[in-house]
Model the fold of this input.
Amino acid sequence: MFEHLTTAPDDPILGLNEKFKQDQRDHRVNLIIGIYQDETGEIPEFRAVSEARRRISSNVKANYLGIDGDQAYAQLASELILGSDNPRFREGNWVGAQSLGGTGGLRVVADFLGRCRVTDTVWHTNPTWVNHQSIFNAAGLQTKPFPYLDAAGRGLDFSSMMSALEQVPTGHAVLLHGCCHNPTGVDPTAEQWQAIVDVLKRRSLLPILDCAYQGFGDGLEADVLACRLVSSQLHEAIIVQSFSKNFSLYNQRVGAVLFLTKDSAQAATLRSQVKAAIRANYSNPPQYGAALVRTVLGDKELCADWKRELEAMRQRIAALRQRFSESLREKCDHDFSHIAQQKGMFSFSGLTAEQVVHLRDEFGIYFVGNGRMNVAGLNERNLEVTTRAIAEVVGRCPVSAS
Ligand code: LMR
Done:
């Protein structure tokens, strides 16, 4: 039965991370996976999360959660996206469900769209996160790209993007990154977001906003601008949320899906379908990670402390971006200044696949093959080594985008 199988390709992000773990070189630098590391290279635990661990340790019960998970958690998670005073919470025209991180949330959305025949096509930015297409394809949906990054690989090609969105057939879904675009770090401005929402509305397209990096771009509130525009101006939309990054809970798989509906009756129908999609997939979610997030978001002081720590991380990444691009300016002719302007954990460096291989094999510096780097993996110790290696590699063979 298994004779015909051939080896599947390694995942471009997680597969490479496995290779990094096997690399024995002391000086190796991991700029692969979207994980925030502190100055010592460790993944920090938020003070508020440590306190939440203490508070819930005696409280964990063994019973199953409901299919759609911890509803107090889903409410608080949705409030973080939409704002606690959002009229939808009074009107009941929304559905929130716990999910297995952002990836699990996207898969619930994909299954829901497919099983309910909402649409058969999901349009996505070119480029997008390497797993987006696989998730929707696995649920039987087709995926199609629309332009996003400009030819120089540094900023948004807004006019091409808008022209393409104008051509998307009515009723199709459009997958957008709520903030901190992965892999480019290039986000639309507030005015551009409004124009995007206008076209979604005019052409009756269904937005799916993937919101995995809230708090790492311009701040917790500013990063959900697109979600709030969609919530106030469209009847129907889908938002997928992850707490992997902004709660530093990578292996707890804590996320949520938020469906915005025309009215409360539609919300009730939709909840039943979302539950059916979840039940057929993983039955119901685990408790612990969501309980940690609920405990922090539900406690005024813990929540304020979490926000302070997250803001400090955001500012540190912004400072690292500046330092990185200045250090490169001192060392090579090529212009890497776009890295200082971009948002969130990632930047598209513009390095070619060949240069990325040189960096990895000769210097032990790991970028994703498409040139994406996790800026949040830099620190005082590895920044200088990294920019020196980039300057050397770029000096030998020119970069693709200039
Ligand atoms: C990333 O893009 O590095 C993260 O979202 C982790 C992942 O699952 O790929």
